[in-house]
Amino acid sequence: MAEMTYRDAINLALKEEMRRDKTVVVYGEDVALYEGAFKVTRGLLSEFGELRVRDCPISENTIVGVAVGAAMAGIRPVAELMTVNFALLAMDQIVNHMAKVRYMFGGQTKVPMVVRMPGGGGSQLGAQHSQSLESYFMHCPGMLVAYPATPADAKGLLKTSIREDNPVIFLEHELLYNSKGEVPEDPEYLVPFGKASVMREGEQVTLVGYGRMAILALQAAQQLEKDGISCEVIDLRTLVPLDMEMVLASVRKTGRVAVIEECWKSAGLGGDIASRIYEGCFDTLLAPVHRISGLDVPMPYSRKIEKLCIPQLEGIVQGVHDLLNEPY
Amino acid sequence: MAETLRELLSEEELLGFFEQMVLCREFEESCAEQYSKGHITGFLHLYTGQEAVAVGCTAGLQEKDYILSAYRDHAQAIVRGADPKKVMAELFGKATGLCKGKGGSMHLFAPELNFMGGYAIVGGQFPIATGLAWGSQLLEEDRVTACLFGDGSMNQGTFHESLNWARLWDLPVLFICENNFYGIGTEVHRASAQAALHRRTCGYDIPSEKVDGMDVIAMYQATKRAAEWVRERQRPYFIEAVTYRFRGHSMSDPAKYRSPSETDVWKTRDPIPNLSRRLLEEGIATKEQLEEITKRCLARVEESVRFAEESPWPEDAAVWEDIYV
Ligand SMILES: Cc1ncc(C[n+]2csc(CCOP(=O)(O)OP(=O)(O)O)c2C)c(N)n1
Ligand SMILES: [Mg+2]
Predict the structure, then answer these.
(1) Residues of chain B with pLDDT under 70
(2) Which of B94, B119, B155 sits opposite A58 (nearest CB)?
(3) Nearest C-alpha to atom 12 of ligand 1 is from which residue?
(4) What is the set of domains in chain A, with CATH numbers?
(5) Among chain A residues, CA nearest to B254
(6) B27 close to B47: Cβ distance less than 8 angstroms
(7) For residue range A279-309, what is the model confidence (pLDDT) as tens digits?
(8) pTM
(9) Residues A87/A93/A99/A103 CA torsion (nearest 10 deg)
(10) One Pfam annotation, family name (chain B) (predicted)?
(11) Domains annotated on chain B, with CATH
């Protein structure tokens, strides 16, 4: 184990996989010479050279499309979109191509590729640069979606993504890059898809989160413990596949659950998870599923009001109190 | 250049150019300071070095013409007439800002000045400019739409789609590329197969020219000529304004991808001292006059900071306002 940041853990995963497999290539806007807008690709160009680590034009749709083609040709591309917001320019290649070619060609080809995208809000970057689009990707079958919360998972999930034969949308939270944690140094350390993790065991309430929301949920649980409230915290780790088994097992134990999502509430992933909880363990619920979500508004710039739009620690703590006070 | 400045423009216009460039420069310097104090947050892209483009091109347009830009947009808005106080308040995230504190640095907007916005998605403004031009053409408003954008944005699909569209429908768009040679850290020849950017319009049958974007007079003349051409023929035109940003891409960029000597060479072409030198040489202004103007600009910028500091934050309820009509 070594302590490192989320950023360095991702960087290490890229390096290890590139060392292991010569068909792994990395490209994107400013990833090579500039070493990434968030410095995630530091040192890659110098170690692997300009054939495998390349800068490319500001052409998001083509960034993804080129990865689809290269993957079909037998390469394992790891493309970076500078932020998730720009994935919206690439939705055609993501949804109409990346997620479709295998199926519509009757399984005769595969698309082993990863698209990394930093995202999330909270840095006063305004409406076009602060979005949480995880639900968009979950909606479309044909691709996998990972969203690590911890440095260890960032490493393990990215390595699994690169070895995965299906296309993977790999979401990273911009506010987690500097967060630190213990990371296994083993170059074979892999975190499987579809396996959520119990970050903390508890009895009274289940908190379900992912990405930065899982970290906030954990902090909320620590705070609630001081009020004598015992929370179980589940980090989903991958959104597709979604580990409902673990969520349901926990809810069956606690009877109460809050789902914390950074994205907009309308048609957000929390609603989907809530409906699956109702389907799976309605009989054991002691209160309705509680959703703590991003506000259904475009993100304002001003920090005074921006924080109202993203789930905050205090809001989660309050939400759990509300949940326990439900008159059921 | 054979002509003297006096033959081209009135004294008042020339001093106006100087004043606007200085105002933009001082405004940006002040932004940098306010950013380091934590009063301005988020992304902050400064225009320092490129002032001649905004000032010259705005002067070459008519007031009714639309202008829109990317996220490096403070100068274009201010030169168009946006009150620096309101721009600074916007950057502070205050309720008195140009966009009520909701937009921030990258999203200025002043429709009463026909300043149709700053957009932070690279290439996002191309189709909007094309649509604005179509709308004003349908309404027979005789407007030109000036669409400003960076060299890097020319590799977006929207660039190609919009140029083709604008020529196909013959819309009055004046495309103005601010070629400052970098898209963040990627130099233009590493992103564009044809590095002579103005030559890329031949595929759309749109005439183009390259202009010295460090020379406010050249920028003014070229824009005026081009805008009138566009207005008259109702067809798009393309200007590549060759310029340079003296600072990094944004406040978080130390600009290690370019050498200090490269920057030094460009600084000898700084549009502000270059204009002041010519003004002095030709006896259009005295040193004292120019100093007076600079002082006036500084005072306006200081006033804008004071205004922003003293302004109230948006009410919490504001997050729910302006989503729908
Ligand atoms: C669609 C999209 N992709 C990527 C970015 C990130 N980004 C912001 S500015 C920029 C470089 C743009 O360069 P250029 O068009 O030359 O404008 P300049 O900054 O030089 O004014 C990039 C890649 C973005 N904002 N939008
Ligand atoms: Mg540029």
Answers:
(1) 1-2
(2) B155
(3) B183
(4) 2-183 (3.40.50.970), 197-324 (3.40.50.920)
(5) A34
(6) no
(7) 999 999 999 999 999 999 999 999 999 999 9
(8) 0.96
(9) 180
(10) E1_dh
(11) 8-311 (3.40.50.970)
